[in-house]
Automatic annotation (TrEMBL):
Record text on subunit structure and interactions: Homodimer.
Source taxonomy: Bacteria, Pseudomonadati, Bacteroidota, Flavobacteriia, Flavobacteriales
Required cofactor(s): K(+); NH4(+)
Encoding gene, per UniProt annotation: coaX
Protein name: Type III pantothenate kinase
Any one cellular-component term (Gene Ontology): cytoplasm
Assigned protein family: Belongs to the type III pantothenate kinase family.
HAMAP family: Pantothen_kinase_3 (MF_01274)
Gene Ontology MF terms: ATP binding; metal ion binding; pantothenate kinase activity
Amino acids binding substrate: 87, 94-97, 172
Function text: Catalyzes the phosphorylation of pantothenate (Pan), the first step in CoA biosynthesis.
Catalytic reaction annotation: (R)-pantothenate + ATP = (R)-4'-phosphopantothenate + ADP + H(+)
Top EC group: transferase
Binding site for K(+): 117
Residues noted as binding ATP in the record, renumbered to the chain: 6-13, 120
Amino acid sequence: MQLILDVGNTRIKWALFRQRELIEQWDCSPEQFRSILSDTRKKYPEVNRILVASTGQLDSKQVKVLNSWHKPHWLSHQSVLPFENNYLTPESLGLDRIGLMAAAALHHSDKNVLVVDAGTCVTYDLLYANNVYTGGVISPGLSMRYRSMHRFTAKLPLLDPELPDLDGGGSTAQSMHLGAVKGLLLEIDGFIDHYRREVHDLMVILTGGDADFLRDNLKNDIFAHSNFLLEGLNYLLELNSD
């Protein structure tokens, strides 16, 4: 059994796999890490491989506790990857983007695949059918758009995302929803259209925390896959097991 840890700045995501089957997933705060790890060791003693994808940071005590169970593989650009990484600055390539391209290689190795990850930022990453990756696009995510309008102006309120009335815009709130939500939908459709003009027979995968909110309002045909990143990270653990 494999344990995947996706360590962010404010949350740590956990996923348990048996071979390539996702068994369970949950998340916790960094402060809860040691107690959750202790509970996980007791509940799942059959775990024998661990991968850590860390954009946040575990402290030395947390790392020591983790190593006392199984020494994990710490994902980096130097890990064994299932694709040719031609990113110009591979050391700065986000581990989530590496994981998403690994999932594309796992599930669709014979296709040109554009993965749109609608999270804190929205990323657009293309894996060619010959398993070559050259880069992509990073854009502000949905919540970031709302927070930016509130933070960098004197009077605009902080709103929760809401699907706008496309004939609206008659109030400040509706205008902001149109700008944030409809603006992002138009951006995503625009990038998909751009890539489809450039790349023949393109498959588009939509994933990330805002995927369910956005998916039914895109004009392009896409495949939504909520666990795409976790499956990619699990595949990377498979490739990097000693």
